[in-house]
């Protein structure tokens, strides 16, 4: 098992889904965790033993204030995100702005303000999406924002390389989190939609939160000491056969 013992790791979006699963997995691997997100109660439910920080990562003043009290970090998992569907033609500008704020501005601000808190040799992982690699109908603003996350990871790998800091993005395929389930407007549509999503990858199954958390754990660990600037799809092979 990957060993995260003695590492202090911050997870954004730690109150649900992949962030919650990651918090519990990383803790079992020995990490000391800081969980950040908008809902304090949800963070506390994820992992009572962690430090909990209620903040909106897209608000500069909140991230700036947190950075002043943040301890030095061995790892940073910039996982928080939001999903709204729609085409370019059909998405209101306000929804586009929310997708950029929740999915790209947030990780940018966290990286900007927490850079001084990262130890030399630290590791950073950003959550992108496989539909920022392969276009999917009706997810335009989200996909564009996540494509920006992928490039942000590469830029940070270059900028932080002299400090020995590794930075990678993971690009998950569909995982039946609350965020994905909210795309469907009825139980029947949910069942049909999830079955259709299974069919697009060679393994013919959806991902699990643990699948994604396990890859993030490896990338954050000392076992990963020469991988940086990469975008790693975790999607059952969907990107490979697209």
The description of the largest β-sheet is: 7 strands, parallel
CATH architecture of the largest domain: 3-Layer(aba) Sandwich
Task: Count every helix, treating DSSP H or I runs of 4 or more residues as helices.
Answer: 9
Termini separation comes to: 32 Å
Question: How are the strands of the largest sheet arranged?
Answer: 3-2-1-4-5-6-7
How many DSSP E strands? 7
> What would you report as the Rg, rounded to the nearest angstrom?
17 Å
Number of self-contained structural domains: 2
What does this structure look like?
With 242 residues, the chain is an alpha/beta fold. It folds into two domains: 8-172 and 209-231, NAD(P)-binding Rossmann-like Domain (Rossmann fold, 3-Layer(aba) Sandwich); 178-206, no CATH class. The chain is built from nine helices and seven strands; from the N terminus they run E-H-E-H-E-H-E-H-E-H-E-H-H-H-E-H. The chain has helices at 17-28, 40-46, 60-67, 93-114, 140-160, 178-181, 187-198, 209-220, 238-241; strands spanning 8-12, 32-37, 51-54, 73-78, 118-127, 166-172, 231-234. It has a seven-stranded parallel beta sheet with strand order 3-2-1-4-5-6-7, sandwiched between helices. Strand 2, helix 2 (40-46) and strand 3 form a beta-alpha-beta unit. Helix 1 packs across helix 8 (209-220). The chain is globular, with a radius of gyration of 17 Å.
Quick overview of this protein structure:
By secondary structure, the chain is α/β, with parallel strands linked by helices. 42% of the residues lie in helices and 17% in strands. Strands 3-2-1-4-5-6-7 form a seven-stranded parallel beta sheet, sandwiched between helices.
